[in-house]
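FORM 7B: Structural annotation worksheet

SECTION A. Query
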Amino acid sequence: MLSSLVMWSLALLGAIGILSQLLPVLYWTLFHRRETNLRLKYQADWAIVTGASSGLGRCWAIRLASQGLGIVGVALPGPEWEGLQAAVFEAQRKAGCPERFVKIECDLSQVEAAVKMIEEATAPLTNVRVLVSNAGCGYTVPLQSFAYKSINDYIALNVTSHAAVVKLVYT
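SECTION B. Predicted structure
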């Protein structure tokens, strides 16, 4: 009898402990989580999204378009681009905004050339104030199997290009 009472007491204490951690998160999620419209927050007209042709970059491009931003999509050439412009235009139409999309196909591991392309494409645009610097890659092979050029390209894409694009947009 006593051992079952102790067991139930411990279970109750455990449940209270879990609920005390879970309820604030649930409350915040249900009642305070509001999507921030970045167009309004930063008084922006355009957003640059690197890695825009697929994955999270594609999702961000469409989400920002739904907030009324024009999208400058930057990614490698390839079939992944298919349908992105149509999806961006549809999101912009639903938001009641003009259809605006600029496609830049470039290799961000070639930092200087890529930044020059982005700079030239965005020069006539006004209020480019949102950046989703999403391009990158990862490998699951041992470092010993990398050629030095591959290591340099990897660092250029995953580190240097992000710093260069941030500098371009915010200076």
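SECTION C. Observations
Residues 19 and 56 are 32 Å apart (CA to CA). The longest helix spans residues 2-31.

SECTION D. Sign-off
Analyst initials: ____
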